[in-house]
């Protein structure tokens, strides 16, 4: 089954990232982002018949139904997606499949992250909806300090450096380019704060070889998109971003079970997306790549087929990754400099690619943006979803 040209992203919405939220609920943020995206598409809530969201603490069960009830939408299709940082891109594919199958016609996909400042009072802090983790990783890895993502990506970076000899300056250039982009995006958390390669390399070492400025900034925020059928998209007054191709591949959860530390599931996902789209790598005008760490971007460049394995560092040296350069990467600043609002951080790559295709990115608008490649990454290079978006659905 091909999804080529069957659906388009018609509306986008995104909150300006903030360090913390006060008096917010995740449900409220999800709903506001969803309604903003619906309005941006030029639609009424009654025209939406599908809802996709992610798990959130206030509704640990029946999350889509909770959101449907809150929004007052009569949903023919409701889904929850749990692919970590690939969730945003994964929502697009699931919405497209549901629409192509005739289950619904217009789907709102919404994500959010509430982040409250820790309280010194007993019982203070944000509600996490904690549940007991009984996975193998919780039993056999976390007791020995293998907690969170930093250590896993540091292992990947160390192995990559051992096998291919990438220089720290090459990785730092990725962070510098995205900060340049963020300085042209007033909504970015690091707007107006440029950095240099030396700044990156002189920032504190968090987990060798990853420096502080090579790691995402956690923020609060929300993002949503509206995916609709080709029939409805053609009737809308505003430009849309057409979905030409999609691919997905998941290989593991724990880094201990990763088939390889230097080759990822991105290859399979990207190959499927490009094959479905009928687009060549050299046709891509924008790379909107999940960037939790600089090493993530380097591996994605290679595994998505833009550079040969081991040549990512050379590729970075030979190209300008700024939005006004010859190989634009994450014009909004990426999660490294725009901010990572939980699952909504991954969605930011979808919203930015859609805006660029629609020609709605203001001063950071890429001069020619006919085709955009989006990649979402979940876990520790575990879950991969690739999308090809285009200005035309033909």
Outline the fold blueprint:
Blueprint: E1 7-14, H1 26-40, E2 50-53, H2 63-71, E3 77-80, H3 87-100, E4 106-113, H4 136-140, H5 150-164, H6 168-182, H7 197-202, E5 205-207, E6 210-211, E7 221-229, H8 230-233, E8 241-250, H9 266-277, E9 286-289, H10 294-303, H11 312-318, H12 334-337, H13 343-358, E10 371-378, E11 383-390
Parallel strand pairs: 2-3, 2-4, 9-10
Antiparallel strand pairs: 1-7, 1-8, 4-7, 5-6, 8-11, 10-11
Helix pairs in contact: 1-2, 6-10, 6-11
Sheet with the most strands: spatial strand order = 3-2-4-7-1-8-11-10-9
CATH class: Alpha Beta
What's the overall average pLDDT, rounded?
Answer: 94
- Unreliable runs: 120-129
**CATH-derived architecture:** 3-Layer(aba) Sandwich
Q: What name is given to the CATH topology?
A: Peroxisomal Thiolase, Chain A, domain 1
Secondary-structure class: alpha/beta
Please give the number of β-strands.
11
Radius of gyration: 20 Å
Total count of domains: 1
Output the number of helix runs.
13
Return the string of H and E elements.
EHEHEHEHHHHEEEHEHEHHHHEE
Tell me the span between the first and last alpha carbons: 17 Å
Main beta-sheet strand count, sense and barrel state: 9 strands, mixed
Please, could you describe this protein's structure?
- The protein is an alpha/beta fold.
- The chain has a single domain, classed as Thiolase/Chalcone synthase (Peroxisomal Thiolase, Chain A, domain 1, 3-Layer(aba) Sandwich).
- It has helices at residues 26-40, 63-71, 87-100, 136-140, 150-164, 168-182, 197-202, 230-233, 266-277, 294-303, 312-318, 334-337, 343-358; strands spanning 7-14, 50-53, 77-80, 106-113, 205-207, 210-211, 221-229, 241-250, 286-289, 371-378, 383-390.
- The strands form two sheets. It has a nine-stranded mixed β-sheet, sandwiched between helices. The protein has a two-stranded antiparallel sheet with strand order 5-6.
- Helix 1 (26-40) crosses helix 2.
- The model is unreliable at 120-129 (pLDDT under 50).
